[in-house]
Specification:
By secondary structure, the chain is an alpha+beta fold. The protein has helices spanning 3-6, 21-36, 66-107, 114-123, 140-147, 162-171; strands at 8-9, 12-18, 41-50, 56-60, 128-136, 138-139, 154-158.
């Protein structure tokens, strides 16, 4: 086992909070760069934004969205219905497909579980944006080096060992 391989962390969930959405988006871009460089395998990412009034907006990168799934399902089953039953088949197929697509999007949960998304939604302070990433095969040194660029952000959650938590906290100047 090489030193680089010994420095790899299995699947973990990390949440870092930023004072604004632009900094959060910049961090997500940095994580995507780590993925492109082979420094981690990004399995999911979620941005949770809470305005000053406490209203939250969640943007997930992996889970299907109900509106898009309904439109796609309606389009494909409508086309299939048109081929089999003409205009009436198209209308019936589109309606059934849209309903099935929307229902599937609500039931399917890929990546970060809905329970963890809800936890982050509650944990985020008003006026901040939090990026939660689910990743595996993380090269510790590369992640810490990237996080150092975001000093002042707050580590909300991470299921790392104590040493890695200390390194991340130091990198964020907490």
């Amino acid at each position: 086992m090489t030193a680089e391989q010994a420095n790899i962390i299995p699947q973990t969930l990390v949440g870092i909070s930023f004072p604004d959405t632009f900094r959060a988006q910049e961090f997500l871009t940095a994580v995507t760069r780590l993925k492109a460089n082979g420094s981690l395998v990004l399995e999911d990412a979620v941005i949770v934004v809470k305005d000053d009034d406490g209203k939250t907006v969640v943007r997930e990168t992996i889970d299907p969205q109900p509106g898009r799934s309904a439109m796609t399902g309606g389009m494909w089953t409508g086309l299939f219905g048109l081929l089999l039953g003409g205009p009436v088949g198209w209308a019936a197929g589109a309606a059934i497909g849209a309903g099935a697509g929307a229902l599937t999007a609500k039931v399917v949960d890929l990546g970060i579980s809905d329970e963890w998304v809800a936890w982050f939604r509650d944990a985020v302070k008003p006026g901040t944006a939090t990026v939660a990433i689910l990743a595996s095969q993380i090269v510790q040194d590369h992640l810490v080096a990237e996080v150092e660029r975001f000093a002042g952000a707050e580590l909300v959650y991470a299921n790392f060992d104590a040493e890695m938590l200390r390194r991340l906290s130091d990198a964020l100047d907490e």
